[in-house]
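User: structure tokens for this one?
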Amino acid sequence: MLSNFAAVINKAKEFGPITISVAAAQDQDVLLAVKAAGEAGLAQAILVGDANEIRRLAKEVGLPEDITIVDRLDLKEAAKVAVSLVRSGRAQILMKGLINTGDFLKAALKQDEGIRSGRLLSHLTCYEVPGEDKLIFYTDGGVNIAPGFEEKKDILANALAALSDLGIKQPNVAILAANEQVNPKMPATVDARALAELYAQNDDFSGIVEGPISMDVALSLEAASHKGIISNVSGNVDLFMVPNIEAGNLLSKALIHYAGFKIAGVILGAISPIIMVSRSDTAQSKLSSIALASLLANRMRR
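Assistant:
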């Protein structure tokens, strides 16, 4: 089992460097991440965008002079070309640069030109927890705003497939809600129970999905005991599923800034992993995201 991001990076290295296609690559933070991935032996990059600006920034950050650059001044055109490189197989990961998220994802999902697989896109976040010897995951705090039950089925399926590719074959899953009681006035509890029942009836799934379950019960056996709740995942959850993007975003920020968790993230559901790093992400977070995407991309190709 992968216990930390160093293990993720080392595992990804075993497959050799992968190629990242960067849309609108004229962004210093993104180029620094590309440089770190190259130096770590994880990836090489094709940089699509304003060639003059990319060369200037590449020189500033110390990228090799012979790095591949495709000149496209128009941002939407840059995204289109970057996506086409993944679609054609020249690159295995798509990465967002200095372009609006909506335009970037629109290019990725465009019918007949994008890299859609027919599944819903969703975001998977991975945390390295201080003092723990395993990584934990949560979904979806980055793409789907207020998913309904059908969307949640896809989001959970995406995450479970990724965890399986990462070697977690029998995951403990907590479908989070405010409490453990199903209340029609709280749709998150209704959806959580339905998801738990769906996987309980799935003979091909060997993990455990529980829901609705509150965060304290998911995290602590003691909390479960105090509430008189018998849980098979309490204190040992691999994947947390949040009810909406607000819950996921708030949880993520709190874990990073108050609890000191290290973080990586990747978008799932396309024919290849998609990376969208934030300016506020640390250099280590960006490198870990590339390593996570690289490992998943290599698994998808096998």
